[in-house]
Specification:
Radius of gyration: 19 Å
Helix content: 25-40%
Largest sheet: 5 strands, parallel
Number of strands: 9
CATH architecture of the largest domain: 3-Layer(aba) Sandwich
Shape: globular
Order of helices and strands: HEHEHEHEHEHEHEEEHH
CATH class of the largest domain: Alpha Beta
Strand order of the largest sheet: 7-6-5-8-9
CATH superfamily of the largest domain: Aspartate/ornithine carbamoyltransferase
Length: about 300
């Protein structure tokens, strides 16, 4: 059963069944308590980041090193032959011949699928434009399970730029596997794409739309905050809507077990004073990226 992910690409959260998601989460728990420092010895990861990243890039590289593997790659597209006009397909076809597995972030939607088609070795999508970010979703689910003991039967609110937020898109599609109730908090111009809500309807997931966090805060078990994706806008009006600003006073009406998540980086959408409250789980969420990505690398490389 565990070899079901061996040699596979991970481009979209659609590439994983519920059983496969649960396998990754279970393996991540084992990695967190019992890391295997020689498991990927001799394996090489290509870290191909054509777009800025801090947590995703460093956690993938840390995961590979912690399992005994090595990393080659780059942190910006401007230092690659893309600057000379090289096609992404050609670049990833060659990179794939140098390594055992690759991870790519790129500003264009569909770029990860193109890279996977080009490469003879497995490719993991670390974010393709405003499309998807499947491995962020895995660590989001891992963190929810870690703090609340389950994913089923939870009420989950997602707030902020739901139109351009790839982490939100992937998380919604993954949550469609579970028995959850969703609340979308955003202004109309930043609402969740219809393609996502169509999938949720097909799976029978209940959801509703709201203009402010204040409307949903007493009802939810998880509040997933997201920043305004300034890099996806063509105009300069990128202020966080007032209804999507989380303030400490909101937590007076929250469940004591509420967990606040955020894929980071944050801008002004979470008041800094919330960081020291028991509700704040976003820094632990970021740290969970290492065991989750350790599990994913090991499973795709067929070492578990």
């Amino acid at each position: 059963m565990k070899r079901m992910l061996q040699g596979r690409d991970l481009v979209s959260i659609h590439d994983l069944s519920k059983n496969e998601i649960e396998l990754i989460l279970t393996t991540a728990r084992k990695m967190q308590t019992n890391p295997r420092p020689d498991l990927l010895k001799g394996c090489i990861l290509a870290s191909c980041f054509f777009e800025p990243s801090t947590r995703t890039r460093l956690s993938f590289e840390a995961a590979m090193h912690r399992l005994g593997g090595s990393v080659i790659g780059f942190a910006e597209g401007g230092i690659t032959s893309a600057k000379k006009g090289e096609a992404l397909f050609d670049a990833m076809k060659i990179v794939g011949s140098y390594v055992d597995i690759g991870v790519i972030r790129h500003p264009q939607e569909g770029s990860a699928r193109l890279a996977a088609d080009a490469s003879a070795t497995p490719i993991i999508n670390a974010g393709d434009g405003a499309n998807q970010h499947p491995t962020q979703t895995l660590l989001d689910l891992y963190t929810i399970q870690q703090h609340l003991g389950k994913i089923d039967d939870l009420h989950i609110a997602l707030s902020g730029d739901l139109k351009h937020g790839r982490t939100v898109h992937s998380l919604c599609l993954a949550l469609a596997h579970y028995d959850v109730r969703l609340y979308f908090v955003s202004p109309e111009n930043l609402t969740i794409p219809e393609a996502i809500t169509h999938e949720l309807k097909k799976k029978g997931v209940k959801f509703s739309f709201h203009a402010t966090i204040d409307e949903v805060i007493p009802k939810v078990d998880v509040l997933y905050m997201s920043r305004i994706q300034k890099e996806r806008f063509s105009d300069s009006n990128t202020e966080t809507p007032s209804g999507c600003l989380l303030k400490k006073k909101h937590l007076e009406r929250a469940k004591k077990t509420l967990r606040i998540l955020h894929a980071l980086p944050r801008l002004d959408e979470i008041e800094k004073s919330i960081d020291t409250t028991p509700f704040a789980s976003y820094f632990e969420q970021a740290a969970n990226a290492v065991p989750v990505r350790m599990a994913l690398l090991a499973l795709i490389l067929g070492k578990l």
